Amino acid sequence: MTVMLDMPTLRPDTALAGAPAGTQKPLVVLVYPKVDHEKDYVYFWMPFSLLTIAKPLLEDGRFDVALFDGNQHDAAAWARFLDEHLDRAVAIGVSVMTGGGQISHALEMVRTAKERPGCPPVVFGGPHVAVLPEETARHELVDAVLAGPGQNSMLPFLESVLGRLRRADVPGLITRLPSGELLRGPVNPPRTGLLGAYPWHLLNVADYLRDDPTVASRTLNYVSSQGCVYLCRMCFELTYQRKYSAMQADVLLADVCDLHARFGINGVKFYDADWFVNLKRAVSFCEGLTERDLGLKWAASINPNDILKARRAKLGLLDKVAASGCSRLLMGVESGSDRVLADVVQKDVTRAQVLDVAREIADAGILGSYTFIVGFPGESEAEMEQTYSLIEELRGLAPTPETRVHLFAPYPGTPLYDEALAHGFIPPTDLEGWSRFDYYTSLTPWTSQATVDRAREQTQMRLAPAS
């Protein structure tokens, strides 16, 4: 048996996965810490990362899974959750992203768990771990990290916790040895293959329904793919090394229809990085939804190049999207300056093309929601003004689009992060420092308060309920 010298010792009653019939299976606790949103933010995150990890664990059949969502429950609820589940738990998995206060909340929750006797190993994963795994693994509250897709690595990690696999053989694993040195497992491949329907029974789905002002009165957030194929140099999706994985159209359609039947949803808001990467999948889903005529509204993100590709292929994309009930398309435009688009962002699109596709979206009767970023390294005041002039042009369309202007935030693992360092940005040096990283505020020394105020003024979103 492989001994976990640097991790909490498992209790005898939880150490065996192959328990006799009639006994409880070992329990895996998966935690999604709270995310602190900016003021007046009307949306919230759903723990899809945990659902994605839970699915292969449940399909394996040897483990039970319990999820805790810090966006839905407070510290007192976490204490009660530990009272109920900690005795059976063989591991606690925590998913964290950079910024938004999630790391800070994660550390508070883990500290509470570790104050209790018999706390099992705590393993961190998620986007932040993907780019700063060693730094995360060195924190005293972190027993191990899993870099890369958790659905590839969580089951092998549990095998190692149970003494059935060497830690050195766990994909993406980094953990501290008693000497303080780090032990590393093999590389965790970024590709995960096709995604399947989520194990919704692990959540109270009704808690996640909301009246979305741009979709419908009972809208559910949904993520149907991972990764992206584009190369925008400020985007965290680059850390996934462009390995795109998605649910097939028929699986996605069946799941959405099931959610409609069971929970009475009348809207779906896809939070994929780019829902339209696979145009054939998109068209197939739209045609299937139109055939079923459920009266369901939906929204998703799209890259301007998706529309340009669909035109060249003569797919009639936006007509099919509109006919299927799509009410809103979110597009990251980033800038109104062709130089910034080409040289800084590498968006592979021009200002003129952005206006062209935005008009096509409006002509289809779909609300366009366009996001921009100001304060890029080396961006001039004149180039920021070009962004604001583009926003004014877009607001002349009908329906009047939403616009949101973000401040540039240097994300580790992206090409523009290195440029930000060269321009004087000083990053945190440990996990505690990153726990205070707030991407809603000005983080760079070259961004003035006037730039911040202008960005806030130019953000115009629909905040009133849809009903």
Automatic annotation (TrEMBL):
The keyword S-adenosyl-L-methionine applies. GO terms for cellular component: cytosol. Keywords: Iron, Iron-sulfur, Metal-binding, Methyltransferase, S-adenosyl-L-methionine, Transferase. It comes from the Bacteria. Residues 25-168 form the B12-binding domain. InterPro entries: BchE-like (IPR051198), Cobalamin-bd (IPR006158), Elp3/MiaA/NifB-like_rSAM (IPR006638), Methyltransferase_Class_B (IPR034466), rSAM (IPR007197), rSAM_sf (IPR058240). One of its GO terms (molecular function) is metal ion binding. Pfam families: B12-binding, Radical_SAM. Residues 215-450 form the Radical SAM core domain. Its cofactor is [4Fe-4S] cluster. The keyword Metal-binding applies. This is Radical SAM superfamily enzyme YgiQ, UPF0313 family.
